[in-house]
Amino acid sequence: MALRQIRYDGDDILRKRCKEVKTMNDRTRTLIGDMFDTMYDANGVGLAAPQVGVLKRIVVINVDDETPYVLVNPVLIEQDGEQIGDEGCLSLPGKVAEVPRPEHVICRYYDEDLKEKTIEADGLLARAICHELDHLEGVLYKDLAVGPLREVEYEDE
Ligand code: NI
Fold it and tell me: Which domain holds residue 24?
């Protein structure tokens, strides 16, 4: 496993639509492992493959430090409610903005063995799923923000 270079806002690859994963192989498994390493190294809670320069429909998410998800070819099959809250992205370091998202989603996806699964999520996990799925369509959260992009204020440790 290894860290991959994160692509930043302004890089054309973040604006492209990703391709479906049709088969699982060692190369793609390595990519998934590297995506987790890269996400944890950057203290993120989600990362999509185009953020490391790969146009595949794969995202990794871990919003509570305990429950890692790999979503391959994910599709939202239900969404309802609304939440508005601050969102950030490893491709726009040091920035946040308020983004409206559904409060509740159901997502169908394939796991890393390409077994079909569904996940039902609320709150932060629902937000993370929506954010990462948008990356697969070339959409960044700043496109959906209802307020200005703000600088993150870091607390002293
Ligand atoms: Ni992001």
Answer: 12-151
